[in-house]
C-alpha cells in the first residue's frame, strides 16, 4: 500500500518511527515532511500535503502527526475526500477503516508513546473497509457532505 506521512515540528520523531515501520513492513512510503523538530511550521500545511497526496493518487492512505493530533485532524477533514480520524487506541484505528473508510490516521505525539503509536498505525494499515450495505449507506451520506 502507498502511504503518505506528514508531521509538524511536534510530530517529526514519531512520524519518522512510523514511516520506518511501514517501509520495513513492505509498504511504499511518501515522506511529505516535516523534518525539523525545531522548525516554526504549522500543522495545517502538513494536513494539506497529505490530502493532496490522497487526491492525486500518490497515496492510498496517510498518517499525519502533530502534538495533540487534534489540529491535523481538524485541518485534514477540511479537504474533500479526506476522512481523517484521531485515534489513540487500536480499536478506533481499525474500526475507523472497517466501518467509516477512514483514509487518514491522525496521532498526537505528546499524547501517546511511540510503541502504542506503532500498534495503532499497524491496526490502521491492516484494516480494510467492509463494504457492508449499512457502511456504504453511511459513507454515501458522509461523502455527500463534501458537496455542501
Describe this structure in words.
The protein is an alpha/beta fold and 148 residues long. It contains 6 helices and 5 strands; from the N terminus they run βαβαβαβαβαα. Strands 2-1-3-5-4 form a 5-stranded parallel beta sheet, sandwiched between helices. Helix 2 crosses helix 3 (70-76). The longest helix is centred in the first third of the chain and has 13 residues, at 12-24. The chain is globular and about 45 Å long. It starts with a strand and ends with a helix. The mean pLDDT is 96.
List the helices and strands and how they pair.
Layout: E1 2-7, H1 12-24, E2 28-31, H2 43-55, E3 61-66, H3 70-76, E4 84-86, H4 90-100, E5 104-108, H5 114-126, H6 133-145
Parallel strand pairs: 1-2, 1-3, 3-5, 4-5
Amino acid at each position: 500500500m502507498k502511504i503518505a506521512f506528514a508531521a509538524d515540528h511536534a510530530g517529526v520523531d514519531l512520524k519518522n518511527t512510523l514511516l520506518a515501520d511501514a517501509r520495513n513492513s513492505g509498504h511504499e512510503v511518501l515522506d511529505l515532511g516535516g523534518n525539523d523538530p525545531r522548525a516554526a511550521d504549522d500543522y495545517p500545511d502538513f494536513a494539506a500535503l497529505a490530502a493532496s497526496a490522497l487526491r492525486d493518487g500518490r497515496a492510498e492512505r496517510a498518517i499525519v502527526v502533530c502534538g495533540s493530533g487534534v489540529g491535523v485532524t481538524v485541518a485534514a477533514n477540511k479537504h474533500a475526500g479526506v476522512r481523517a480520524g484521531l485515534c489513540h487506541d487500536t480499536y478506533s484505528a481499525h474500526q475507523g477503516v472497517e466501518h467509516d473508510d477512514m483514509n487518514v490516521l491522525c496521532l498526537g505525539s505528546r499524547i501517546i508513546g511511540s510503541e502504542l503509536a506503532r500498534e495503532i498505525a499497524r491496526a490502521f494499515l491492516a484494516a480494510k473497509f467492509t463494504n457492508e450495505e449499512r457502511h456504504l449507506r453511511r459513507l454515501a451520506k458522509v461523502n455527500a457532505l463534501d458537496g455542501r
